[in-house]
Amino acid sequence: MYFRLNAEGTILDYLSGNSAELYLPAEEFLGKKMTELLPPSAASQFNRAILEILETRASINIEYSLSVLEGEQTYEARFVPFNCKEIIIIARNITQRKQAESELRQKNRQLEQTLKQLGKTQAQLIQAEKMSGLGQLVAGIAHEINNPVSFIYGNIIYARDYAQNLLQLSILYQQHYPVPPVEIGEFADEIELEFIKKDFPQLLSSIEMGADRIRQIVLSLRNFSRLEESAIKRVDIHEGIDSALLILQHRLKENGRNRNIEIVKQYGELPPIECYAGQLNQVFMNILNNAIDALADVRNNNKLELADIVEKPDFCCLISDCNASPCIRIRTQVLDNLRVEIAILDNGPGMPESVKSRIFDPFFTTKPVGKGTGLGLSISYQIVVERHGGTLRCISAPEGGTEIAIEIPIRQKTVDS
Predict the structure, then answer these.
(1) Which member of 63, 124, 302, 397 has the greatest number of CB atoms within 10 A?
(2) From CA 240, how far away is CA 152, in angstroms rounded?
(3) Distance CA 251, CA 261 (A)
(4) For the segment 41-57, what is each residue's pLDDT rounded down to a tens digit?
């Protein structure tokens, strides 16, 4: 809706595509002051806006509410100086948008609360190293995150349709009325209408891409939890590793004095592996967590002289190109058409033989009190060796980094179909 007012606030003219949008019939407001027709609260806003625009000659936006047949409605009005003595007001009903924003804020608050709760619970899980419960937690959080994301994603579709309809309507107007009134042409130039036509669809596409990215993250979290797969299944091992990395992303990124940890993936061509996927994901999480902890000194000490790891018998050279930067390399390969190897290597300070020989013992830990119970690698050993018939090896030396190598059969003896 467009209204043209003089300096005293009297309505001189209007333009509306739908008469039902008008607060009053045209014959009741033409020639009268806008502030005399509106409720006191809205009239006060309009009066201040008119006085300000006459003084500053700068455009002003306000929001106000009116009670109409449909109930309380919210409007947005833009005051634009038309000439020295007149003002153009562009008003539109934004009730649905405000309701959508309110619902979105509520969903965001719920999401923030859920994420805060996740943070508290996650801290407890890390402290106790009870990775067996992480799958259930991740699946629940993924479900909670998916609800507001679905709301956003669903509304984007409608917003895109509305925008396309409005843009098409604008094109039709230009085709049938190629020479619009001067004030309309000037306003179209002021709001950069042609730019909006090009940019608005791209803006919606960006929002849609962001929402789709969140949906992909939720899918990764669900893949990590794999609660429904308590039996042996054929799975893509790389998906489990990537899901674990996604969950640990906040620990890998630069934070304060801690530098970013580089992840180097050397994935081989692996066939689908028969395994207890959820349990194997817990193994990846345990080993990656330990690698991140081992890199603490490398991350917060820029002057650390970390020697490159050299080739040694039964030991793979680790990331010499990373120099002293904190780095984790993940290597996968088929060994003999019967087994696969997943090796996770870090360029941390390594460990002496006295520590290395005990890392798979239950309750053995070198971490400070309260930081770990020494169960993570012990549980991992049980999952790899006892549940999957594989092997779990540690190769490490002081100032030489650490490699944890997992070997499991490609096919288990029995498979639940």
Answers:
(1) 397
(2) 28
(3) 9
(4) 888 999 999 899 888 88
Rounded to an integer, what distance in angstroms lies between the CA atom of residue 27 and that of residue 31?
A: 9
pLDDT at 361 over 50: yes
Say which residue the tokens 């984790």 belong to: 328
Rg (CA), the chain: 32
| pLDDT at 131 (0 to 100) | 47
User: Distance from CA of residue 364 to its chain's centroid?
Assistant: 37
Q: Following DSSP, what letter does each residue of 65-113 receive, concatenated?
A: EEEETTEEEEEEEEEEE-SSSEEEEEEEE-HHHHHHHHHHHHHHHHHHH
Class of domain 228-409 as given by CATH: alpha beta
What pLDDT score was predicted for residue 389? 92
Cα–Cα distance for residue pair 277/237, rounded to 1 Å:
8
CATH class of 2-93: alpha beta
* pTM check: above 0.85: no
Element spanning 327, H or E: strand 327-334
- Per the prediction, the chain carries an average pLDDT of 79
CB 81 within 8 A of CB 68: no
* Angstrom distances, CA of residue 36 to CA of 11, 27, 92, 141, 234: 11, 14, 20, 54, 74
Q: How many CB atoms are located within 10 Å of the residue 318 CB? A: 25
| C-alpha to C-alpha distance for 105 and 99, rounded to whole angstroms | 10
Is 328 in contact with 264 (CB distance < 8 Å)? yes
> How do the domains of the chain map onto residue ranges?
2-93, 98-223, 228-409
Q: Residue 397: is its pLDDT beyond 70?
A: yes
Q: Which residue has the tokens 């902890």?
A: 293
**pLDDT tens-digit readout, 106-144:** 998 888 888 766 764 554 454 444 544 555 566 667 767
Report the run of H or E that residue 155 belongs to, with start and end: helix 134-176
DSSP 177-231: -SS--HHHHHHHHHTTHHHHHHHHHHHHHHHHHHHHHHHHHHHHHHHHH-TT--S
Tens of pLDDT, residue by residue over 210-249, are 777 777 777 766 666 654 456 788 999 998 899 888 878 8
Residue closest to 403 by CA, chosen among 335, 322, 332, 316: 316
